[in-house]
Write a structure and sequence with these properties.
It is a single chain. This protein is mainly α and 410 residues long. Helix content is 68%, strand content 2%. The chain contains 17 helices and three strands. The chain has a three-stranded antiparallel β-sheet, with no helix packed on it. A hairpin with a 2-residue loop joins strand 1 and strand 2. Helix 11 runs antiparallel to helix 12. The longest helix has 54 residues.
Length: 410
């Protein structure tokens, strides 16, 4: 292609085109700066341009062509995205209309539907995270093994991971245990098995595998956290604190670690330091359970008005939190507000009529005023086991969920 007086000559048919056109008006060829070097076009070696300049023009021509093609592809992709967005918007509007109609006719509850939808989304996210975690474990296990039975280990790990992905968890875990016997110092494999057994509540097996993983890779914050929780429930308070604090130093704030430290300190009677840890837990995870334990610590320190504020936040977030209503009644009772205490105990009893403490509190509040303590204190004084998960099933469930949460969403 040549230019002359504001005109461009096509490199194919030599037709004259106006400067600024992208395609030839006659043949439709994309107009380029240079098509081929003059040394190829003419046999004569005499040229009027420097070789370096000619090479740069060729490079610019190629770049211009590629950019133009890329721009075309981007336009096509943008059109596809816009069409999909319009289709998604229409689907969303249809679903909203359908849900509104069902709610208006009282066929479904909007809150129940939202809860179910959020639960489904969380389960999908957890499934994706579990699949990614499994693939990461498989890759790390094989990468870090340098023994003589690599072929057998690879087969067992691959088969075990495949079985777990297919839903045959028991078969898959047994296969991975056979692989762990071949590679007893493989931190990735032992850590995964320890986490699995911790999730299933098989604490002896969980601790065995977590101890192996920690010995091979002491810096792993996740292993430190789970092992610290296991040690705490086994009554090894000092080692549990060391592991939990090490986990916090390496991974930052964690509800599970701070909550567990708070429980251990509370079991020792140090409610002031327990409050510090519970407040860190609340900062790491804003949930009604965190407000509850902060309120409990303030209540134990006779700071009842502050405890009251946290309990009101807890029941505001979850109006079905019976134990929070029960503690609210205890706080009102400590403030001499028996009528409000009775109302709180009534609320707790209406939510969970099967709990005997709530019924007893309703009977006694206006008489003796002596009511049973919160569920957290059902752990007997001097008890050495289940110092972290004992006493309150709801708090234990939140602790486990946070401890086993994928690292990506912490």
């Amino acid at each position: 292609m040549t230019t002359l007086g504001g005109q461009i000559h096509c490199q194919r048919c030599l037709a004259t085109n106006a400067l600024g056109r992208e395609h030839c008006a006659r043949c439709g060829t994309r107009l380029m700066l240079v098509v081929e070097p003059s040394a190829v076009r003419y046999e004569d070696e005499t040229t009027f341009t420097d070789g370096h300049d000619e090479h740069m023009l060729e490079r610019v021509s190629a770049l211009e062509n590629r950019i133009a093609r890329l721009a075309g592809k981007l336009e096509e992709a943008l059109g596809l995205v816009l069409r999909q967005a319009r289709a998604s918007e229409a689907d969303h509007a249809l679903l909203e209309s359908l849900v509104s109609l069902l709610v208006e006719t009282k066929a479904v509850s909007s809150s129940a539907l939202e809860t179910k939808w959020r639960g489904r989304c969380e389960r999908d996210d957890e499934a994706q995270a579990a699949a990614a975690r499994l693939e990461e474990v498989r890759a790390r296990t094989l990468t870090r093994y340098h023994g003589a039975e690599r072929g057998l280990l690879s087969q067992l790990v691959t088969e075990g991971c495949a079985a777990i992905r297919q839903g045959r968890e028991r078969v898959g875990v047994r296969t991975l245990e056979r692989a762990a016997a071949i590679a007893p110092d493989n931190a990735a494999l032992n850590g995964y098995l320890g986490e699995h057994f911790y999730r299933r509540g098989k604490m002896a097996l969980a601790r065995d595998y977590l101890e192996r993983a920690h010995a091979s890779e002491p810096a792993d914050a996740r292993v430190r956290l789970l092992l610290g929780l296991a040690c705490a429930d086994d009554g090894e308070s000092s080692r549990a604190k060391e592991l939990l604090r090490g986990s916090l130093r390496r991974a930052g704030g964690s509800y599970a670690a701070h909550y567990a430290l708070g429980r251990l300190l509370a079991a020792e009677g140090d409610w002031k330091q327990a409050l510090v840890e519970f407040k860190h837990a609340l900062a790491a995870r804003q949930c009604p359970e965190a407000h509850y334990v902060v309120a409990l610590a303030y209540h134990q320190l006779n700071r009842h008005r502050v405890a009251l504020r946290h309990l009101l936040k807890a029941v505001e977030v979850d109006a079905q939190y019976a134990e929070a209503f029960y503690l609210l009644g205890l706080v009102h009772l400590s403030l001499g507000e028996r009528v409000r205490a009775a109302a709180a105990f009534d609320a707790a009893h209406s939510i969970n009529e099967a709990e005997p403490r709530y019924a007893a509190a309703r009977r006694r509040v206006m008489k003796s005023g002596k009511v049973p303590p919160p569920s957290l204190f059902s752990v007997a004084a001097g008890q050495k086991r289940r110092l972290v998960t004992g006493g309150d099933g709801r708090l234990a469930a939140v602790l486990q969920a946070d401890a086993l949460k994928p690292a990506a969403v912490r």
